[in-house]
Amino acid sequence: IPEGERVDFDDIHRKRMEKDLLELQTLIDVHFEQRKREEEELIGLKERIENRRADRAEQQRVRAEKERERQARIAEERHRKEEEEAKKRADDEAKKKKVLSNMGAHFGGFLAKVEQRRGKRQTAREIKKKTLAERHTPLDIENLREDGLRARAKEMSEQIYQLESEKFDLTEKMKRQKYEVSFKANYLGMCHYKVKARWKCLTIAYGFTVGSGKPRQTLTHFYEVEYPSIHFLPLVRCRVVGAAIRATQITLYQPR
Q: How does it assemble (predicted)?
């Protein structure tokens, strides 16, 4: 402030207020510009999200359409194969029936018996299902009181005990049958081995020197026998009196 001059504080305050107002207006303009840019970015982001969502929905629709077409092709192929197999089975059955019908009049009832047995034949699963259906009884305990429930529980306990006893008996029976089958199989194997051994050829060649002391004469005998022979065992086990064994050669063809 220059000396000797009059100071106008109102003017200074006014200028300061104008400066602050200008700065505030600048900040407001910057804020609105930034907000405008953020709103534009937000609008662009929403548009991109919507476009991406629409693209994803379109992709899912196309994928679902392709999957439906694939399932339809699979179902059609399965249906076609089933029809071909059914037609093939029908043709085979027709051929079998034609062959059996052409074999003669005495085979006329054979086909009917076969069809009857085929209709009566049951698989293991069907037998099990039928047995369970026969043994399974509904509880029907909705209208029973305490005494009825106790009696029903006792009856079920006795039934479970009976089934466990039958299961144990059948298990022991199966073990005995397995043992008998194994024992008989081993016995048949031994018999088969003995029968094969009766037809194997054995060749015996042995020589002995007759005399006592110094050998005087050498006799060599060759035998070819078919086992069993009434002369074989005594021949092999005999000892020649007054003879010194010089050489013994035995060739055995054992069964495989």
A: Interacts with TPM3.
Helices (DSSP H) in 103-145: which residue ranges? 108-120, 124-135
Q: How many CA atoms lie within 13 A of 40 on its CB side?
A: 6
Phi and psi dihedrals of 221, rounded to 5? -115, 140
**DSSP secondary structure code for residue 198 in this structure:** T
The 10s digit of each residue's pLDDT in 67-113 is 999 999 999 999 999 999 999 988 888 888 777 666 654 555 555 66
Q: What is the pLDDT of residues 180-233, one digit of tens each?
A: 888 888 888 787 766 655 544 443 333 433 344 444 333 334 333 334 433 333
Residues 186 and 209 in one domain: no
User: Domain for residue 112, yes or no?
Assistant: no
User: Do 174 and 181 contact (CB within 8 A), yes or no?
Assistant: no
Do 161 and 226 belong together in one domain? no
Amino acid at 103: M
Whether 14 and 94 share a structural domain: yes
- Contacts (Cβ under 8 Å, ≥6 apart) of 256: 196
Tens digit of pLDDT for each residue in 54-66? 999 999 999 999 9
Q: Which residue from 240, 246, 254, 134 is spatially nearest to 201, judged by alpha carbons? A: 254
CA 83 to chain CA mean position, Å: 28
Angle at which helices 108-120 and 9-102 cross, to 10°: 150
- Which domain range does residue 34 map to? 8-104
Residues whose CB is less than 8 angstroms from the CB of residue 203 and which lie 6 or more positions away in sequence, other chains included: 223, 224, 251, 253
